[in-house]
Amino acid sequence: MHVVVIGAGVVGTSVAAELAERGTRVTVLERDLPGGGTSATSYAWVNANGKEPEPYFRLNHAGVRAHHELGGSGTEWFAPRGHLEVAADEAHEHHLARRVASLRERGYPTEEVPLRRVQELVPDLVLPDDARLAVLFPEEAHVFPLPYLGMMLGRARRAGAEIRTGAEVTALEPAGTGGRVRTADGSTIAADAVVLATGRWTGEVAQSAGTTVPLIDYGAPGDITVGFLAVTNPLPTSVDRLLTTPWLNVRPAGGGRLLLQALDLDKEAAPDSVPAPTSPLAQEFLRRLRTALLGTEGARIEQLVVGRRVMPADGLTIAGTTPEQPWLYAVATHSGVTLAPFLGKAVAGEVLGEEEPRLAPFRPGRFAAGMTGPGPRSPRRPGEQ
């Protein structure tokens, strides 16, 4: 059996590695370079925290567990240090408390941390005077996407997969019981099955096969598809886990650097207009960082990017064969990093004829009933999904 996987992000490479290790002939086509799309500009938070409805929560919790099974107690790409969230006003406290109650009912590990113990977990945290509630989510983790990609690409290559970069797909066509892939250099590749894992470009590529996979595209600054991420210089501060504060989300970025996110600032985010590392926006990130953590007096922003989110039309994962072209399997999700190792095994199994029940609610065919999406929404507070 020959399977073509289009897209070499965290999901596509995971699927390719699993297929190849199961003895399938695999060709991976990547338009640019592996990780050049959404994978490289992700906060990369592994979690099922606040993800609704129930089937989507269960899917993401399976993703969390898959990371722990694959990464164990920690690797170059996986940091299973948990996530600490601190609420410092009444609205955030109520939001967090409701979320924790729901998660506990579903068996998701949570631990309320007495405020006097918070700095044992993050010694350099400046706890707000009006802090009201702190919760540790011990199963949650963060991933370094490019080392993860390197690991999966290595597995795929060792198992015999062919990885082609600079291979832009121009058309997908039925051919007998399978499909045919045409690329910009004039090549034609016949396949028994094609896995479409092209992130936010999934809908565009699917159209060339005469099928629809509806995603929300960027429409205006601050909409649901975009968000800022800022990377600092190396700093002498002790943060080894994900940290959500009232004003700033922080996680290690490697080499002493920190990755910063402030969801209420995303109202200005636009992919065609990225502020400079010395811009007022960057200075606001730094102001919030210095308020939140000791040891950050010498902080500066080395990189400011606008991350592009993969957002299916209803906000939920898409995974399954397309109704019009059963040889074409589409997979697209906002939770790509969380779900990557789970989807790698699940999608590979489904392509080879083994149905995964947890993917049943997420088939592309659900959109035929006219299901609509969440659309753009107002800026979110730190701690909200």
From TrEMBL:
Keywords: Oxidoreductase. Residues 358-385 are annotated as: Disordered. Residues 2-348 form the FAD dependent oxidoreductase domain. It is an enzyme of class 1 (oxidoreductase). One of its GO terms (molecular function) is oxidoreductase activity. InterPro entries: FAD-dep_OxRdtase (IPR006076), FAD/NAD-bd_sf (IPR036188). Pfam families: DAO. Gene3D superfamilies: D-Amino Acid Oxidase, subunit A, domain 2, FAD/NAD(P)-binding domain. Its EC number is 1.-.-.-. This is NAD(P)/FAD-dependent oxidoreductase.
